[in-house]
Design a protein that fits this description.
The chain has strands at 3-10, 26-32, 37-46, 53-62, 69-72, 90-99, 102-112, 118-127, 135-136, 151-161, 164-176, 185-195, 201-203, 218-228, 231-240, 253-259, 266-267, 287-294, 297-303, 312-317. It has 319 residues and is an all-beta fold. Helix content is 0%, strand content 50%. The protein is globular, with a radius of gyration of 18 Å. The protein contains no helices and 20 strands. The strands form 5 sheets. It has a 4-stranded antiparallel sheet, with no helix packed on it.
């Protein structure tokens, strides 16, 4: 696989965002229309109560050249969850897919904790207005923690294959203090679940479908799956579980694996390498990939340095 990078295509600081959000366009996810592409992303506002971040979903509509901006959403795509709910403090990310005459949005809702920083779950919201706004099917998550996956369920990517809903998601394997004076950091792996209706899910409990590359403390995030030819490919990002925010070489980079049966995955990062450009917006980090098809081409959206603070870029797969 050879990706040709087209550079950064969207900078949130150059646009007026809804919900009083400033900066950040994290985890771009595409919904293709006949004559344009809508790209959802997670952006941030500041909670006036305590000065901490709140994550909101917004979108940008772009021409199919994936360069020219048509519009940026000017209203809430989906409000945050209610007091005490799993998505009270934010949604990051939201994966979208068409199903019948609706658009399904699988959210990763998060809420603050005390002993650790955050907990997450996967929710479902449905749009009946072509993805302009979404309404939850209920206040709780459709995929959450369980006996052998006790923390941090999130990043659900859903695809319908042969009338079966497949979800690739992340589950936390635990929290750990790597230094006495440091806050706990988490480790998470990619898992798989299936459903008949997209609501009731059966997990392959605690099954790590992607082998580690950098050791047991590798954290894997944001899976996205696409069929190319007769083979399925999964893209994701991975990093060290601690000391990854400021130490070069320990932050996110893009990983890859392939499968012929959706059950057995062969990791092959080198075949789909996407390297940063020295001195540019993605020089230190490549994260939160999303792969999609548009007009017989395969594209990859991704974030760069600072976890997408200054936007997202585009790469195109060569035939």
């Amino acid at each position: 696989m050879k990706w040709v990078k087209h550079g950064k295509i969207f900078d949130p600081t150059q646009h007026q965002l809804p919900d009083n959000c400033l900066q950040f366009a994290q985890s771009p996810q595409a919904l293709v229309f006949e004559d344009f592409v809508r790209i959802y992303f997670s952006t941030r506002a500041v909670d006036p109560v305590n000065g901490k971040y709140l994550s909101h979903i917004a979108f940008v509509d772009m021409k199919k050249n994936l360069h020219d901006v048509i519009r940026v959403s000017d209203q809430s795509v989906i409000p945050l969850g209610g007091l005490g709910c799993f998505d009270e403090h934010g949604i990051f990310p939201m994966s979208v897919m068409r199903y019948g005459d609706a658009v399904y949005g699988y959210t990763c809702g998060w809420n603050r904790r005390i002993s650790v920083s955050v907990d997450t779950g996967v929710g479902l919201a449905i749009s009946r207005d072509n993805g302009m706004t979404f309404q939850r099917i209920g206040a709780g998550p459709v995929l959450t923690t369980s006996l052998h996956e006790p923390c941090l369920i999130g990043d659900g990517f859903v695809k319908v294959i042969d009338d079966v809903f497949h979800m690739w998601y992340i589950f936390g394997t635990g929290w750990k203090k790597y230094a006495a004076d440091a806050a706990p950091d988490r480790t998470y792996k990619i898992g798989h679940a299936t459903s008949k209706d997209g609501i009731e899910w059966v997990k392959e409990e605690a099954l790590r479908i992607i082998p580690d590359r950098i050791g047991a403390d590798e954290s894997q995030a944001l899976p996205t799956v696409i069929g190319i030819g007769k083979r399925y490919h999964i893209f994701f990002c991975y990093r060290e579980s601690y000391d990854f925010r400021k130490t070069k070489g320990r932050g996110y980079r893009v990983g890859h694996a392939w499968s012929d049966d959706l059950s057995n995955w062969t990791r092959d990062d080198e075949d789909a390498v996407l390297e940063g450009t020295p001195g540019d917006w993605d020089s230190d980090m490549q994260c939160y990939p999303h792969v999609f098809e548009c007009d017989d081409k395969v594209y990859l959206l991704y974030n760069g340095n600072e976890f997408g603070r200054l936007g997202f870029g585009l790469a195109e797969l060569q035939p």
